[in-house]
Amino acid sequence: MPTKGYLKMSKRIKLLLFKRALSQIKQGKIMVVLYQLLRIAGFKHLLPPFPISLMIEPANICNLQCPTCPTGAGKLNRPPRLLKFQEFKHIVDQSRKYIENIVLWNYGEPFINPECLRMIKYATSSGIYVVTSTNGEFFDSSDFAIRVVKSGLHHLIICLDGADQETLSIYRKNSNFEKIIKGIQLIVAAKRKLKTKTPVLELQFIIMKQNEHQRSHIKNLSHQLGIDIYSEKTAGIDANDPEFQKQAEKFLPTDLSLSRYRLKPDGTYTLKGKIKNYCKWVYQRTVINSDGSVIPCCYDLYSRYIMGNVFEENLGSIWKNNKYQMFRKQIRKNRRSISICNICSEGRYEITGKKAG
């Protein structure tokens, strides 16, 4: 008997889900299909044998110095490290039958790792959907752009938070506007040369005080450059940081409807929305840092909740271990008591992307 959730779906969504299920069955991912069917049926606390999505950090190093980023601000409490290809391969090999996608970033610039493209190619050739995000500073030649396209990468997010060098540099310290634009042009040209629709190119614009007046300009620019998706993202600032209020005042847009924060009567900022005792990500996704440590969420900026290390034990065992299960139980009981959950927007409201005009 179809569930209420299934009945509410449009015919288009049902068709897409059916096609995806067929593709996954052909790839031997029967457990993934079964899990998704049970999720649709309403079993939201069901735990699959492996996470169905992995966020893997190729590097915790960056060429920029963005002030609210732990890496850029020099606050990250992990030694600089590049993930090795063999380490990445080890992760993929033990989970390829279960995972749908790999999100290839965390706290660092992915393309600063010289083995990043090799990782992408290995994952995509294993039937895994791969998306990565970049500051756009590394696409400096036609040859490299062609290699990016040939890697099989499905989705490439390029962050551009200003319509000129002056505006961009306020937040993206050491960035080069013209270099980013040129890099986008090279990727677009490579796609045309190879006659392919992938990677889907998304230009992401984080709305802040210094650039909120440039929204329409950036949207038009994305269209002119041949971008597939233009998206706007609200700025995220660590509310647990002692400098939070100062940073919020400096970077949050004057129009707080374009922000995930609100002003309280006392003039201080706080995250919008009511925190719920549920988080879908702890039942679907896990994060693997470049040192192999497994943490539950990308909002665990300083790896306070390490569940294990994938270089030392099987990811499936970590995923189901007692520490992880207790963490999930605490979320169901009192999510507010978990420090990283208090800076997370999950379940509070939705952030949506917009197609380029």
Write up what this structure looks like:
Helix 4 (85-95) links the parallel strand 1 and strand 2 (101-104). The protein is globular. It is α/β, with parallel strands linked by helices and 357 residues long. The strands form 2 sheets. The chain has a 10-stranded mixed sheet with strand order 11-10-9-1-2-3-4-5-6-12. Strands 7-8 form a two-stranded antiparallel sheet. 35% of the residues lie in helices and 14% in strands. The longest helix is centred in the middle third of the chain and has 18 residues, at 177-194.
SS-derived structural category: alpha/beta
Number of helices: 12
Unreliable stretches, pLDDT < 50, 5 or more residues? 1-9, 350-357
> What is the H/E order?
HHHEHEHEHEHHEHEHEEEEEHHE
Measured by DSSP, the beta-strand proportion falls in 5-15%
Largest sheet: 10 strands, mixed
**Number of DSSP strand runs:** 12
What are the key terms here?
357 residues, alpha/beta, 14% strand, globular, disordered N terminus, disordered C terminus
Summed up, what is this model?
The protein has 357 residues and is α/β, with parallel strands linked by helices.
